[in-house]
């Protein structure tokens, strides 16, 4: 066997159920929304190895608590995921946890699956109890509609304030010659901040992967995707990133070149979904990429970039396309990373605006025009080391305030 | 001598030059603003002991670097402070530092004061060089106008985006029977976040205070005032809190009861100024007090309260008077402090909205009305210990976005 380079191809019409052995079903349970699908069911024809990252918020939604415990009990026999939108089942106490448990156990019966084989995810308003009976009726309907073509409908069913569904599929030709597929879907447009960054994200694959490697691959992929985005700096109660590998391709990820390619593929899928979430950020008018290099290490680069991405002053300036280098330099200064201001070099849209601790005499109007675009690049070279990171965020608009200030009805 | 309780009285028309032996002068140097005073000079008739807290931002303005070094050389022989508005002298490199040094040294000559006796503070735009010659002409004019009645004019001269001046004076009757006065002024309406919280704040007193105690008193006062406010979470390059004690009252702060009273008085002045800064927060429509109790310690209480105060989702909800307890609970959850959600009790405007890990069935309309006020109280009891803190912040409005998104002209 000749070792070759890995090849990655995003499939134009790919989705969460594109990898072999996956089916999706959706239904309208009407637990909160009217006249739209609000339940998505993902089912694998074989048991999966699973890995997940959950919110670091100390206030965790019932499904997060349930899934964390389930993953500890069983990381190799998962076969389905039930997701509902409309109600997050967070801040719901013991009744909320009982509702999630009932959802999982009844789903296992409906799908004729063994005990401890179903994950549950919920997204929507906090503090409202989940009407389990209604939800189970929806799950039954979704189970009758299972089909490998239903991935796009699933991505749509899990939306809340999202303005468009977010899904993709990637084909990976491994260096060893085998071919696998990854599918992904995500939702989330507010309360977006790392650890975990998105409310809900699910990734499927047909590769054969052991759970230990799957977990480390997910951590690595998240560090270069979901942990690199910020919309408003709030870490939610429900954030979950879950990956399930059902092995239906028969291709095992075992040698180190294939492992590297798998991590790379998983990272590409995570980045695509994370970027879609930022593009759909509440009230966002610009998609902003922040490239930090020259930090002492990658962690410091990420911390510096995330501090810029979180600054309300930077985000409002970018809404106004104001080339306000001072706010970016100021954010670097309080980011907590090692910094020597006179070594920092800053570019806005490719134009150098700051060097040697001083602003350059740049053309403000030209810089304004470079920032007055749907996609904007900010580059910060700290000039100290080899650490680098790429962060994605959006601007802070009137519309953000409007969406989040409106009195709930 | 009979030991008695301390008495504190804010003086209706008090200001920075109210304590004995202080004079202020103002002038228009026209370094950036047109047709308004932009230079303030504070001069003591005797050398002062000094203590200061400076920004923790690694990008420090030239006057911050100068004052830090000066304070290390001389903490007992300071006699004047020069403050200019319009130009912050930050991100100005070596020329900026030379400008501050020239300002200090020439001011010493103009005022016939010894070397190393003048502090310099600057506030305004970042990245612009200070025209020293013009500034010195202004300082000369201000020196000719020195008068103990000019405190209010000084508070006005240091304003930038502030909509009103911030100053006060406090009379303290000490337990030992002596009487001293404290004067204060501050400016700042954006880039407001602790360490240091305000752009510039100066406090004078006529008490006799040794520099070591003065520093610890200032740290203690700041921890209950400037370190407890947040407007937008950005820590500026120029933040400075300076206190000068000239001893002209002849009253020495020596016994422990008097020391406690001095700290209390200094805290009251700092709190008054810090609260005025929040009330003047860019685009603020509400003044919000967050009382946290039941934390494991005071530091944890402050961290929890500041996390709530910084949350864009909480601040936009408060702009809309939305009783969105979920966002407050969520912020507590990611604040990083020890938390057991089922022990948390939350009140909005005195109305209990959350307990035992669950929202109460409260009257949403009544809660909305309680939040739809110019002054709003949020109380969070973490139910774990004795730690408590009070935080002051403001809401996040359309106007905040407008002020900070406008393209600089």
**Count of runs of 4 or more consecutive helical residues of chain A:** 11
CATH topology description of the largest domain in chain A: L-amino peptidase D-ALA esterase/amidase
Q: So what's the CATH class of the largest domain in chain A?
A: Alpha Beta
How many individual domains of chain A?
2
**How large is the radius of gyration of chain A?**
22 Å
Task: Flag low-confidence runs of chain A.
Answer: 192-198
Rough outline of chain A: globular
Give a short account of the largest sheet of chain A.
9 strands, mixed
As a percent range, the share of strand residues of chain A is: 25-35%
Distance between the termini of chain A: 63 Å
User: Most extensive chain contact?
Assistant: A-B, 62 and 62 residues
Counting DSSP E segments of at least 2 residues, the number of strands of chain A comes to 16
Percent in helix of chain A: 25-40%
- CATH H level, superfamily name of the largest domain in chain A: L-amino peptidase D-ALA esterase/amidase
